[in-house]
Every structure is written in C-alpha cells, then in structure tokens.
Amino acid sequence: MVSVKTEDRLVALIDRLRDGQVHRAEDLARRFGISTRTIYRDMDKLSASGLPVAGTRGEGYRITPAITLPPLTLTPAELEALNLGLAVAAEVGDPGLQEAAETLAAKFDAVLPTEAIAEGAAWSQALRSQGKATRVFAHLPVLRAAVQARQKLRIGVADSGGQVVRPLKVENWGRFWVLTVWSESAERFATFRLDLIESAEALPELFVDEPGKTLADYRA
Questions:
Q1: Are 200 and 142 in contact (CB under 8 A)?
Q2: What pTM was computed for the model?
C-alpha cells in the first residue's frame, strides 16, 4: 500500500487497532508501506494523545476499550468517596477489578493538584500496609458524625486499648484513612489508622475548642 499522509495514516491505524486484536509493528508497517520505526513513532503519538494503546515494541499493539470523561471538578467529600470506592475495588477477589482500580487510582493521582496529594505523599509509604477497606468504613459513619457534631468518642485501637478522645478530623491521603484526635486519656494529640480501630462509641458529651487541644494546635 502506498504511504499516506501522517494524519490519515493515524486515523487508519486507529481503525485497524480497534478490532481488539494484537497487531505486530512489522505487519502494520507492511500494510501501510512504511518502516517499523515509523510505526513506533505513530504509536507514541497515539498514546501521547490519550488513546488507550496497549502493547510494546516487539510484542504488538491494540487499542483497549475506553471511555473519555470531560474535565471534572470534585469536592473534597467527592474525592474521599472516590478513594474509598477504589480501595474497596482494589481488595475484591477479582484480579481484573483489582488491576483496574490500581490503574484508575494512578490516573487520578496523576491529574490531582499537587497540594491535594503532597501531604499524603509523606505518609503513603508508612501506611502502605493498611488493612482491608471494609475495616476502614466499618466505623467511618460514627467517626465522621462525631467530628461534625463535636462529640466525644470512646475508641478501641489495636495494641493501644480503649480511650476517650475528641475527634478532630477524619481524612484520607490517597487510599489511606486516618483519624486525628485529642486523647483525653493520654492527654496528647494522636492519629490512628482507621483499619486499626476495633470499636468506636459516640458518647453523650460534646466538646468545645480549648487552647492546646484544637486541630490548629496540632498542625502548628
């Protein structure tokens, strides 16, 4: 086949690759009358344009089914819900869903504003061994409600026993969830991984800000 203009060839390549089959670069080069090096460059262009090209040089290429979403603006709560869903999907027994959750998480992390992930980056390695997502959201409604109502909690934490705390903030850093508190039992600030919280009981007593015991004091 006589070589065509690059733009037309790229369109023809897309049409060829969308059949779901793996096509070797040598076969594509022969079909379009060009060199395999040109095919490699074309694949790089298609991939850089956002097309879901799967495959590598020497093995072959194909276009995987994909859905293109318009730009989205997420609230912090929506991002938290998204991360929780990804954490659950990553821990089901389906290898396909696990892989999809990991790649989707990487795509979102790649486009998140730097300030949205910078704080979590310092913690991600330390929390990488976090347990099942089901353990994370087992107490999540109680913890979030207590933070909003400024209600004291009695929590039981693995290896730490029970203690009365003032819940200051529940937050997620990527796929990791932590609770920041002022512990009245230990008289100090503390952070707990949600997967290590074994029990959480809302107490009837509310609390108000006191110097040295607020979230601002903790961050200072």
A1: yes
A2: 0.50
CA distances from 42 to 33, 57, 112 (A): 13, 12, 28
Q: Tell me the torsion sign for CA atoms 135, 187, 165, 215.
A: negative
Question: Rounded CA gap, 20 and 135, in Å?
Answer: 39
Q: How far apart are CA 81 and CA 17, in angstroms?
A: 35
Beta strands in 9-150 (DSSP E): 53-56, 60-63
How many Cβ atoms sit within 10 Å of the Cβ of residue 156?
A: 15
Residue type, 99: E
Model confidence band, residue 124 (pLDDT cutoffs 50, 70, 90): very low
Place of tokens 């707990």: 192
- The sign of the torsion formed by the CA atoms of 141, 143, 147, 152 equals positive
Which of the pair, 110 or 40, is modelled with greater confidence? 40
Give the 3-state secondary structure of residue 118.
helix
Q: What is the mean pLDDT of residues 120-130?
A: 37
- Residue environment code for 125-138, b if the CB has 16+ CB neighbours within 10 A, otherwise e: eebeebeebebbbb
The 3-state DSSP class for residue 149 equals helix
Distance from C-alpha of 48 to C-alpha of 109, rounded to nearest angstrom = 18
Block residue for tokens 């990527």: 174
Mean pLDDT, rounded, for 168-177: 72
Interior angle at CA 80, CA 77 and CA 85, nearest 5? 130
The partner residues of 193 in beta bridges, in order of sequence, read 178
